[in-house]
Amino acid sequence: MRLTKADGTRLDNATLGNWGEHLAAQWLRRHGRKVLYRNFRAGGGGEVDIVARHGSMLTFVEVKTRTSTARGRPAEAVNKAKEALILRGMQGWLRMLQGSQNIPRRCDIVEVVLREGERPEISILEGALKG
């Protein structure tokens, strides 16, 4: 994994985050999930990085990408405000569906750790958020 540009400068956080979301979507597909939507934005300020199906389960996935675990795991960056944003996004998605109250669902976090010269480390915390 290369974390610097050709001129030697470090990739910015937005680029790292986009790359992490791309890798997370690939990982989810390889592990039996069907990615339905990326970067869903709901009215009222809700947002979800990835909406996917895992069998009969509808999953709302937050992706956290970091270049180190020196200050903790990526999932630890999901604070109460971010959790509320994700849950508003989930509710926005569910409002678009008929009979959404009966759909099994959960909120997951995918952690992506990118280190220079190493393969990305990707893990999932299923049901990490209470939706």
From TrEMBL:
Is-annotated flag, keyword Ribosomal protein?
A: no
Q: Which InterPro entries match?
A: Restrct_endonuc-II-like (IPR011335), tRNA_endonuc-like_dom_sf (IPR011856), UPF0102_YraN-like (IPR003509)
Q: Which UniProt keywords apply?
A: Endonuclease, Hydrolase, Nuclease
Which Pfam families does the record associate with it? UPF0102
Q: Which GO terms describe its molecular function?
A: endonuclease activity; nucleic acid binding
Which HAMAP family did the record assign?
A: UPF0102
* Protein family: Belongs to the UPF0102 family.
Protein name from the UniProt record? UPF0102 protein DES53_102142
